[in-house]
UniProtKB/TrEMBL annotation:
<dbReference type="InterPro" id="IPR000569">
    <property type="entry name" value="HECT_dom"/>
</dbReference>
<dbReference type="GO" id="GO:0005737">
    <property type="term" value="C:cytoplasm"/>
</dbReference>
<protein>
    <recommendedName>
        <fullName>HECT domain-containing protein</fullName>
    </recommendedName>
</protein>
<dbReference type="Pfam" id="PF00632">
    <property type="entry name" value="HECT"/>
</dbReference>
<dbReference type="GO" id="GO:0090263">
    <property type="term" value="P:positive regulation of canonical Wnt signaling pathway"/>
</dbReference>
<feature type="domain" description="HECT">
    <location>
        <begin position="13"/>
        <end position="299"/>
    </location>
</feature>
<dbReference type="GO" id="GO:0034450">
    <property type="term" value="F:ubiquitin-ubiquitin ligase activity"/>
</dbReference>
<dbReference type="GO" id="GO:0005634">
    <property type="term" value="C:nucleus"/>
</dbReference>
<dbReference type="GO" id="GO:0000209">
    <property type="term" value="P:protein polyubiquitination"/>
</dbReference>
<dbReference type="InterPro" id="IPR035983">
    <property type="entry name" value="Hect_E3_ubiquitin_ligase"/>
</dbReference>
<feature type="active site" description="Glycyl thioester intermediate">
    <location>
        <position position="268"/>
    </location>
</feature>
<keyword id="KW-0833">Ubl conjugation pathway</keyword>
Length: 299
């Protein structure tokens, strides 16, 4: 069977792939909706980033032409330019040269084949007079009509878990934050969320220096390394939108001095275990090695 989701334009953002819309496949989309609902209910982050129009559909909000910019930015810009060109004096010859009509070649993920955007659309030329109608119908078909059964099943799944009133007043951006957290790992926020437990038996001055080393290393990490660190530590690649989203709050347990072992983590309780390494260099090397090898462990 084909995957349930595909990434249409902007890499890393996903839309449902309805396929033949068999009862089993539509039920799978409903189950995805239930998972989304449970993530919202339990303040958990969802590991999949959904396209903006999908979030709007889940919220029961209308999907508009400008949402295409988040779905397929290259096509959106081309269509936007068509609208701009319609205002120019020489638009008639321009549209004649483009030879567009009210039909659309769909990619395999969106059903394949040629569809007419209006009845007899293959025989209706796109002109400066009807281009507004064309771009709206184009966007509506690609984002909504070609996948509507899958989208509706996802929304029903969310509403199996949450009352519709729980979604009132939310924008697509609000829902993105609740579901996916803050993509850019803010080091100051991470510092404020984190508590330390000392199992090393060492004096406070050495512990304070070790903490300074740790946060200086995190501060100099690349965006991807920070995501890997937070995933290694908490089981999620992003920070929640607020500290209420952490259950429990992240913590670091400093173990007795030992340069031989890597840090480990217990993602169930968002706890990082780090031996009291002898130098900042050793700490950096071991930490980066651990997050690359995904050295999880219940300790």
């Amino acid at each position: 069977a084909a995957p349930l989701f595909y990434s249409p334009g902007k890499r890393g953002y996903y839309s449902p792939r309805q396929g033949r819309a068999t009862p089993e496949r539509i039920n799978a989309f409903r189950n995805v909706g239930r998972i989304v609902g449970l993530c919202l209910l339990q303040n958990d982050l969802c590991p999949m980033f959904l396209n903006r129009h999908v979030l709007k559909y889940l919220l029961g909000r209308p999907i508009r032409f400008h949402d295409l910019a988040f779905f397929d930015p290259v096509v959106y810009e081309s269509l936007r330019q068509l609208v701009v060109d319609a205002e120019t004096g020489d638009s008639h010859s321009l549209f004649a040269a483009l030879d567009l009509n009210f039909s659309l070649e769909m990619c395999e993920e969106e059903g394949g084949g040629c569809v007419e955007l209006i009845q007899g659309g293959r025989d209706v030329e796109v002109t400066a007079l009807n281009v507004y109608d064309y771009v709206r119908k184009y966007a509506q078909h690609r984002m909504l009509l070609s996948q509507e059964k899958a989208l509706e099943a996802m929304r029903m799944g969310v509403l199996d878990v949450l009352p519709e009133s729980a979604l009132e007043g939310l924008t697509a951006e609000d829902l993105r934050l609740l579901l996916n957290g803050v993509g850019d790992i803010n080091v100051a926020a991470l510092v404020s969320y984190t508590s330390f437990n000392n199992e090393s038996g060492e004096p406070p001055e050495r512990l304070a220096r070790f903490k300074r080393w740790l946060w200086a290393i995190v501060d100099k990490m690349t965006h991807l390394e920070r995501q890997d660190l937070v995933y290694f530590w908490t089981g999620s690649p992003a920070l929640p939108a607020s500290e209420e989203g952490f259950q429990p709050m992240p913590s670091v347990t400093i173990r007795p001095a030992d340069d031989a072992h890597l840090p480990t983590a217990n993602t169930c309780i968002s706890r990082l275990y780090i031996p009291l390494y002898s130098s900042r260099h050793v700490l950096k090397h071991k930490l980066l090695l651990a997050i690359k090898t995904k050295n999880f462990g219940f300790v």
